[in-house]
């Protein structure tokens, strides 16, 4: 029997926004989702123009999330939205996610999960109380070769892990473009909307989540240095962190948005006692395997040597590039399967949810505390568990 597409409502992502369009493309890729409603902007004109461009029923283009929730709740079950996607600035994530969950809707949210640990814990409590599903847009978890890498580490291919190095280099904030009308830069450098971390919250959380996700290890303590290189900027634009993992592994995290000329240079390297791996987001179809006593191997997406459990994440024949949109779509596909209550195969174990959000917020707070203090090391407190 054919499955119907789940119905999606979006908050944020209006005309001129970047990430909302990415979410819409990804959600549509497999036919699991159909965008039917939205509150895309607080600007009424921009909101309606976005709805028109997306060919939505104008009666389901709402002025606010509160209106969307109230009106969607009274629609018949076979037409109301099933889930809400939140693609707003960070300060709205928690109140919007909690409101949607309490109203009985599933939620997929942009990262970081919230402004602080307290808000993240409130979201986790709402997930547990509502029984609804919650997913977090840590996109890089959805890349097929990241899942391949995670599985290789988990089955012990490299022995005990000793070293974890992750870097995320961008250059787009090398100048004070937030003062020149760039809306994306404006809110990301505003503590009231972005939170306590600038570069740290925006891309440092991606790097941290990827390091823990693939290594299977948890960071215990951090030694951090936050810097702001652009004069007048109110949040960090450069992050350097030493990491100590459980089990004794050591790590380094570097994230910056002022490396002039860099595009989206996310790179992960993990080494154990017998070998290691390397993956780079700008060349996502190659996983490099290095061995102590064997020649270096290149595993190509969809080609021979990829692990059987990752096959569901590949979408194109070997040699055909796939990347960012497809990785996002993998999250939406896994989220749809979770909502439908389909059996949870091993290939969906990677989907980021509440736990990933809590971990990243505890990391952000620990880094900020450490950088502001004279302590050499600061503990990353274990978050309260929540269902996702």
From TrEMBL:
Domain Gfo/Idh/MocA-like oxidoreductase N-terminal: 7-136
UniProt cross-references to SUPFAM superfamilies, sorted A to Z: Glyceraldehyde-3-phosphate dehydrogenase-like, C-terminal domain (SSF55347), NAD(P)-binding Rossmann-fold domains (SSF51735)
Domain GFO/IDH/MocA-like oxidoreductase: 148-278
Ranges annotated as spanning the membrane: none
GO molecular function: nucleotide binding
InterPro entries to which the protein is assigned, alphabetical: Gfo/Idh/MocA-like_OxRdtase_N, Gfo/Idh/MocA_oxidoreduct, GFO_IDH_MocA-like_dom, NAD(P)-bd_dom_sf
Name of protein: Gfo/Idh/MocA family oxidoreductase
Originating species: Sphingomonas alpina
């Amino acid at each position: 029997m054919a499955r119907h597409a789940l119905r999606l409502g979006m908050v944020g992502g209006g005309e001129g926004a970047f990430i909302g369009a990415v979410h819409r493309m990804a959600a549509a890729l497999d036919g699991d989702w159909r965008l039917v409603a939205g509150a895309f902007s607080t600007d009424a004109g921009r909101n309606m123009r976005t709805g028109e461009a997306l060919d939505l029923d104008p009666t389901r283009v709402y002025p606010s999330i509160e209106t969307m929730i109230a009106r969607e709740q009274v629609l018949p079950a076979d037409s109301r939205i099933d889930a809400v996607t939140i693609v707003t600035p960070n300060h709205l994530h928690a109140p919007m996610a909690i409101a949607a969950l309490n109203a009985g809707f599933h939620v997929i949210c942009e990262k970081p999960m919230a402004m602080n640990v307290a808000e993240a814990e409130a979201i986790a409590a709402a997930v547990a109380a509502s029984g609804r599903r919650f997913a977090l847009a840590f996109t890089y978890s959805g890349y097929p070769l990241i899942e391949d890498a995670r599985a290789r580490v988990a089955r012990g291919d490299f022995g005990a892990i000793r070293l974890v190095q992750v870097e995320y280099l961008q250059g787009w904030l090398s100048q004070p473009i937030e003062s020149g009308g760039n809306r994306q830069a404006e809110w990301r450098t505003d503590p009231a909307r972005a939170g306590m971390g600038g570069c740290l919250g925006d891309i440092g959380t991606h790097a941290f989540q990827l390091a823990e996700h693939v290594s299977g290890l948890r960071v215990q303590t951090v030694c951090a240095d936050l810097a702001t290189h652009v004069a007048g900027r109110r949040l960090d634009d450069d992050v350097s962190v030493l990491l100590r993992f459980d089990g004794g592994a050591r790590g380094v995290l570097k994230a910056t948005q002022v490396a002039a000329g860099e595009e989206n240079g996310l790179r992960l390297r993990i080494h154990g006692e017998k070998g290691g791996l390397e993956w780079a987001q700008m060349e996502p179809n190659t996983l490099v395997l290095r061995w102590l006593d064997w020649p270096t191997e290149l595993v190509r997406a969809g080609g021979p040597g990829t692990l059987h459990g990752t096959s569901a994440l590949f979408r194109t024949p070997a040699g055909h590039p796939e990347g960012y949109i497809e990785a996002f779509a993998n999250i939406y596909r896994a989220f749809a399967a979770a909502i439908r209550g389909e059996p949870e195969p091993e290939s969906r174990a990677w989907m980021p949810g509440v736990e990933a959000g809590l971990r990243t917020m505890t990391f952000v707070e620990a880094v900020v505390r450490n950088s502001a203090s004279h302590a050499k090391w600061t503990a990353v407190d274990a978050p309260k568990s929540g269902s996702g």
